[in-house]
Design a protein that fits this description.
The complex is a heterotrimer. Chain A has helices spanning 38-49, 69-82, 96-109, 122-131, 138-144, 155-158, 162-167, 193-196, 209-220, 234-246, 256-259, 265-278, 295-306, 328-333, 347-350, 353-361, 373-376, 418-433, and strands at residues 3-9, 21-26, 29-34, 57-60, 63-66, 86-90, 112-115, 132-136, 147-151, 183-188, 200-203, 228-229, 232-233, 249-254, 283-288, 312-313, 320-321, 339-343, 364-368, 380-383, 393-396, 402-405. By secondary structure, chain A is of the alpha/beta class. Chain A has a 9-stranded mixed sheet, covered by helices on one side. A 5-stranded parallel sheet of chain A has the order 11-10-9-14-15. The radius of gyration of chain A is 23 Å and the shape is globular. In chain B, the strands form 4 sheets. In chain B, strands 6, 7, 8, 9, 10, 11, 14, 18, 23 and 24 form a 10-stranded parallel sheet that branches. In chain B, strands 1, 2, 3, 4, 5, 19, 20, 21 and 22 form a 9-stranded mixed sheet that branches. In chain B, strands 15-17-16 form a 3-stranded antiparallel sheet, sandwiched between helices. Chain C has a domain at 112-267. Chain C has 3 helices and 17 strands. The chains are: A alpha/beta, B alpha/beta, C mainly beta. Strand 8 of chain A pairs parallel with strand 16 (342-346) of chain B.
Chain lengths: 443, 575, 270
């Protein structure tokens, strides 16, 4: 049986966006995935055997029936056009072209447009808006860094190739001996798999990251700090600060341990501020460990088209932005929105109960490739092809390096790319609203 | 809205490339090109009565930060700027946001409202250039192109150090083709690589850490490569020591490096081998901030004796704006002075960048000197073809202030009014108050379209209204027979702010100052055939560099043409 | 002073945006014209009169106008936003952005207010006779210039990040505050009579937080300065004695937190 090997495939799973994957295809089926981590492999492999949706579904009075794409789109367009405050959410697990059509759709609808960063690194965005963010691409870290800090994140579990590909283990231009040339520090509330690989582990008390950061910053500026802060001794704090000051190139990676624990964006604010301070002594950068493979792309596309990276409210015709008011969880928990379009995302599984309760009470349209708890509560479900496996497009890595996603296999019949589905939906909505369909050049 | 043919009748035409200085004449458009008016019948055309109006070619901006990673990072971290200027979706137009960091739609619309139709993105880092193209493709109306940052590139520094200019040229040709970029950009040569270690470079003779090459060697090497390839545009540089007191000496040294170097474009008719961007930002004397003074006069004096150099201004406009540059160490310095938020984005093996908000205040002596320095260069340089008006958008001010900059150029009175609002010791630090020169409308047309088109090597079809040129036209509501720019600068500023008509490739895109439609877009890039054999050799060597030091696969690095809306390769056979 | 009544007829589920409810917008208009003003319900434009009965009489100038809003306004945003003159009394509990960007005049709320009230306030007076939400008198996202002038008084409690990036004016909270009170403040005064929320004064560089209630703990980047009997800030005397802490040292800040000694002995170094 003829086999085809596609090389340098981009993995559409996490923000590492590894682009060295080899995929073996036989009769339009992926039979083997090389170089990828377990998570990436699982994503590629699951598409053949998983719970794919292949027909549009319409749920009426509790019963589900298969309908034509035309009927599903018509129903969806009407639901959205009728809504006074529709929410358009998801976007982080699809390619940039689909995101761009999503912006146009939100604009025409006067809706609220949000991506999953509002529940992962939204706080990082807020902190960046307050104090900035000194960062770089991952190759800078690979080639130069001699001190790597992982704070509130566990790449060995969530970004399995991060350490081997970008930070800890690879040999870099100025770090020829690989891991031997680097020090690894992990700061977390528990002793994770990543911590086991570290030269130094600092256990911070749960919900006290801000205090630890404040103490480190004060110590850096040679103020006296208390004997113990956030469960960490003064001695340990001073030693870590010395390590940071005296490295040649330091890199601090952080995850939801900072963004989603008490203090949220202020934790990130103080972490960024610490890194800014350190630049007075040496080179230091900071980078969020982005989760979904194209959540950075969602922020990027939303920003160049609307000026704002997430939580964009078009109700007055022009974009407005204020997380706390205009993010998905805000309009859901405050029971503001009256319809929702969910694209490549599963908020029912990930949002707090209060938000899910409201979502379940309003008309929901899902565009997805497989069944999820969210498709279960959706009135209209439209099956999609999988970006990065069945559809080409652009994705942005966690360091905002854009990479072209590859098409490896043909999608199942009837499964169109998200951007095509959204384009048709946009056209139908414009028809109902009686406005000219905006040309989305980018897609 | 758009008829096949347009006839613009009886306007006062300013078309310096064709040496037309305010002559009353008709301009005819057919199929997106300028044609002989005799070939367009009035009955079949849309007729625009331009009696008592100024008619110019569409504006050409040689240097503006409008698309790409750092522009977008600027938008992302300045929501407070985003909400400053908004316009709702409607009338077939997308919604606008942003004052100093407008979204892509606002960028296209607002440039068109000023009568501009061609805008070059000033700097793009290769590894993220896909992003730059995504944004340019999404920017309405404008024809564009981008300059590729190559000076702090490891591969290039190695070739230049080894004196392998042929190989370097082959590599540059491959890079421009792979990145679909228009020309070679240098930003703080050597300084950005040192910034990888948190350091900078202090003069053109200083050495780059590890790579052991000087900025001077990089600059001369890349000028040489640029001319070996015969690119339409010259080497385009952001000098070392930007923004610092005393930086004019570095500027003059950088100027000097181009002395005697060849000028050999294979396309276009430029007469420079060095374009120095936003000259204002390093036309300063003084030992420190206390003694900070303008040396715009010294810079102009040099330009007056060296016709092989062109400059764009980077004129300060006294606004709250957003500074953004690939000069990472400069932005670090700036945030340490103004204490505002700071983004830094270093790019592996290639370059760096930084972004900091900044407020220019006339009462600040430093800012006032900066304002004066830009104008001094513009007014004391005799040949306007060496000058291109710009604000280095958004660094010295947003491009929407161009009409205000023109006001200062055409009117001593307007300058005096601004000087009166400036720090009182400005006259001791600048000769601006004593300069009498006032630009004519013809000279305005030179520095806002003609000189840029020529310096870019696209004056065959851009920046003029001769037969065969792109039908990019701006009509302004200003009557040079009845109005004197020198005495009525406000009227000119107003007229230039909202074009009566902007026509882009034969499509009316602005009417009465309002955007009324889009036009076919083009993105220009240099498609160079240099030396296939050598290129193969270079790429073989490059495989190892990618495998070891980049974090993307070499096969995923080049950008396919499908990323470009209106891809327009400029074919160049160099050998 | 003329009095104009806006009486709520009830609230929709999709929130309203009604920044026209302020003397600046309603002065000089007849009750009929006012009822015909456009407000927003989600992406729809509706008449003010659809949700509010308009009674009384408007004045020619906003300075001479008192607007009294009665009833349920729990889904109405932007009441009094960008107000510069006159008076506004809200007998109800308005939703978000009450008095946001206000620069003058006086607003009294006899109820609670939602988040983002008096955002970036630059003048005037806001009295809330109930509780305030998060981001009271705070800066808008990304702005390093928060509240610059004016007075906010809250009789009840206030939420998180009140007075963020504050650079002038005064906020008085008679109840307790949430986390990050006065975060990034560079000037101005915040007075708290109840409990002080965690991480107060975080990243402050200047300005004062005066606390008459209990503060469980301060950030490790604040250092004890002294115990003083009283403190005078911008010509106003606060009677102590206070324990004074200085910070945020993380920012090399010189802001002060004055804690009433009597209630905060645990924060006095031994």
């Amino acid at each position: 049986m003829p086999e085809r090997v596609v090389s340098d495939v981009v993995c559409p799973f996490c923000g590492c966006l590894c682009d060295d994957i080899e995929v073996v295809v036989r009769e339009n089926r992926i039979v083997e995935v090389r170089e990828a981590c377990a998570l990436g492999t699982a994503k590629f492999m699951s598409l053949s055997v998983g719970e794919r949706i292949t027909k549009p579904l319409l749920r009426v009075d509790g019963s589900v029936r298969q309908v034509s794409l035309e009927e599903a789109l018509k129903e969806a367009a009407k639901m959205l056009a009728d809504a006074e405050r529709p929410l358009l959410y998801g976007w982080s697990s699809t390619e940039c072209g689909a995101q761009a059509v999503g912006v146009a759709l939100a604009e025409v609808l006067g809706g609220v447009l949000d991506n999953t960063s509002s529940v992962c690194h939204g706080p990082t965005v807020l902190a960046t808006q307050d104090v900035g963010c000194p960062s770089c691409t991952l190759g800078q870290v690979k080639n130069r860094a001699d001190l790597i800090i992982y704070w509130g994140c566990n790449p060995m579990q969530a970004h399995p190739r991060h350490m081997s590909r970008y930070t800890t283990f690879p040999r870099g231009f100025f770090r020829e001996r690989g891991v031997k040339d680097k020090k690894i520090v992990v700061i977390d509330v528990r002793h994770t798999e990543t911590a086991r690989l570290a030269d130094r582990f600092i256990q911070v008390e749960l919900g006290k990251d801000y205090e630890l950061l404040a103490a480190m910053r004060a110590a850096l500026k040679e103020y006296e700090i208390p004997e113990k802060v956030a469960g960490v001794s003064r001695k340990d704090i001073l030693e870590v600060v010395e390590l940071m000051k005296n490295c040649q190139f330091g890199a601090l990676f952080f995850g939801m341990g900072l963004t989603m624990s008490f203090g949220k964006h202020r934790n990130v604010d103080n972490a960024i501020s610490l890194v800014k301070d350190l630049n007075a002594y040496t080179k230091f950068i900071i980078m969020p460990m982005r989760g979904h493979y194209n959540v950075a792309g969602a922020n990027t596309v939303f920003t160049w088209e609307t000026g704002f990276p997430y939580a964009v409210d078009f109700s007055r015709g022009y974009p407005r932005y204020n997380p706390g008011e205009t993010a998905a969880n805000d309009v859901l928990q405050n029971e503001e929105c009256d319809a929702a379009l969910i694209v490549a995302s599963d908020p029912v599984s990930h949002f707090p109960a209060k938000a899910v309760k409201h979502l379940a009470s309003i008309p929901v349209i899902s565009i997805d490739f497989h069944h999820t708890p969210t498709t279960e509560i959706s009135k209209v479900v439209i099956p999609a092809a999988v970006a990065g496996v069945e559809v080409e497009g652009t994705a942005y890595r966690m360091d905002t390096v854009p990479i072209r996603l590859k098409k490896v296999v043909e999608p199942p019949e009837g499964c169109l790319p998200d951007r095509e589905i959204l384009r048709m939906l946009l056209e139908k909505v414009c028809e109902i609203k009686g406005v000219e369909t905006p040309v989305v050049k980018h897609a | 809205m758009t008829k096949h043919m347009i006839l613009i009748k009886n306007g006062f035409v300013y078309d310096p490339i064709n040496k037309i200085d305010g002559e009353k004449m008709d301009i005819a458009i057919k199929e997106g090109k300028i044609v002989d008016p005799k070939k367009v019948k009035e009955k079949e055309a849309k007729v625009i009565d331009a009696r008592g109006k100024v008619v110019m070619p569409g504006g050409v901006d040689i240097h503006s930060h409008v698309a790409g990673p750092k522009v977008n990072a600027g938008r992302l971290f300045r929501p407070e700027d985003g909400r400053r200027q908004v316009r709702p979706f409607g009338q077939g137009l997308r919604a606008e946001t942003g004052f100093s960091v407008p979204n892509v739609f606002a960028t296209g619309y607002r440039y068109a409202q000023l009568g501009y139709t061609t805008v070059m993105e000033a700097a793009t880092p290769p590894l993220k250039t896909r992003h730059t193209h995504e944004e340019m493709s999404d920017t309405p109306i404008l024809d564009q192109g981008a300059y590729l940052i190559l000076d702090n590139n490891w591969v290039i520094m190695e070739y230049l150090k080894a004196g392998e200019y042929e190989k370097c040229a082959a590599f540059v040709a491959w890079m421009l083709r792979s990145m679909k970029c228009f020309g070679i950009k240098s930003v703080n040569p050597g300084g950005d690589e040192n910034w990888g270690w948190g350091k900078n470079i202090s003069s053109v003779r200083d050495r780059v850490i590890y790579f052991d090459i000087s900025p001077a060697e990089i600059i001369q090497g890349l000028i040489r490569v640029n001319e070996m390839l015969g690119l339409p545009h010259s080497f385009h540089i952001h000098c070392n020591n930007l923004g610092l007191p005393g930086s004019y000496t570095t500027t003059l040294e950088t100027f000097g490096l181009s002395d005697g170097m060849p000028i050999s474009p294979k396309v276009g008719e430029r007469s420079q081998n060095l374009h120095v961007a936003h000259i204002q930002f390093y036309s300063y004397g003084g030992e420190d901030w206390k003694t900070f003074e303008s040396k715009g006069d010294e810079v102009a004096k040099y330009l007056n004796n060296h016709s092989n150099i062109t400059v764009c201004l980077g004129q300060v406009t006294f606004d709250e704006t957003t500074t953004m540059t690939a000069d990472g160490p400069f932005e670090y310095l700036l945030q340490s002075i103004n204490k505002l938020k700071w983004i830094n984005r270093d790019v592996e093996l290639e370059t760096s960048s930084g972004i900091v908000p900044y407020i220019y205040r006339p009462r600040s002596l430093v800012n006032a000197v900066q304002w004066a320095a830009g104008l001094e260069v513009a007014l004391l340089t005799k040949n306007p073809w060496q000058i291109m008006m710009s604000t280095d958008h958004p660094n010295a001010g947003p491009f929407t202030r161009y009409p205000r900059v023109v006001k200062w150029l055409v009117s001593k009175k307007a300058r005096e009014e601004t000087i009166a609002k400036c720090h009182e010791t400005l006259p001791n630090r600048s000769s601006i108050a004593s300069i009498d020169r006032e630009y004519t409308l013809y000279e305005v047309a030179v520095v806002t379209r003609a000189s840029a088109a020529e310096a870019l090597g696209i004056s065959g079809f851009k920046g003029h209204l001769g037969v065969g040129a792109d039908a990019d036209v701006a009509i302004y509501d200003f009557n040079p027979e009845k109005q004197d720019p020198s005495r009525e600068p406000e009227a000119l500023e107003k007229a230039l702010s909202r074009a009566l008509y902007t026509i882009k490739r034969g499509h009316i895109v602005v009417e009465n100052g309002e955007v009324v439609g889009d036009a076919p877009k083009r993105v220009f890039w240099a498609d160079i055939c240099f030396d296939e054999e050598l290129e193969k050799q270079v790429l073989d060597e490059l495989h190892e560099t990618f495998a070891k030091y980049y974090t993307v696969s070499m096969s995923n690095y080049p950008i396919s043409e499908e990323y470009l809306v209106g891809s327009t390769p400029i074919k160049i056979t160099s050998k | 002073m003329k009095e104009l009544y806006l009486i709520s007829k009830g609230q929709p589920k999709v929130p309203l945006e009604a920044e026209v409810i302020k003397p600046d917008s309603l002065a000089g208009l007849s009750t009929e014209e006012i009822a015909n003003l456009i407000i927003y319900r989600g992406n729809r434009r509706v008449r003010l009169g659809e949700y509010f009965e308009v009674k009384g009489e408007s004045a020619d100038n906003p300075e001479e106008l008192r607007i009294i809003v009665e009833g349920d306004v729990s889904r109405t945003k932007y009441i009094g936003a960008e107000m510069s003159a006159g008076e506004l009394i809200v007998n109800g509990s308005p939703y978000m952005y009450l008095g946001a960007w206000m620069s003058g005049g006086k607003i009294v709320v006899n109820g609670n207010v939602g988040d983002f009230a008096a955002l970036e306030m630059s003048g005037g007076e806001l009295v809330i006779n109930g509780n305030a939400g998060n981001y009271l008198g705070a800066a808008y996202r990304g702005n390093w210039r928060g509240m610059s002038d004016g007075l906010i008084v809250v009789k009840g409690n206030a939420g998180a990040e009140i007075g963020s990036w504050m650079m002038g004016g005064k906020i008085v909270v008679e109840g307790s505050t949430g986390p990050f009170t006065g975060v990034h403040m560079s000037d101005g005064i915040i007075v708290v009579y109840g409990g002080l929320g965690p991480r107060a004064g975080a990243q402050m560089t200047w300005g004062s937080i005066v606390v008459y209630g209990y503060a469980p703990e301060l950030l490790p980047s604040f250092s004890f300065n002294e115990v003083i009997p009283a403190v005078e800030i911008e010509e106003e005397r606060f009677e102590g004695p206070f324990i004074e802490y200085v910070g945020d040292l993380a920012e090399e800040g010189e802001g002060s937190i004055y804690l009433l000694e009597e209630k905060n002995k645990h924060l006095k170094p031994q």
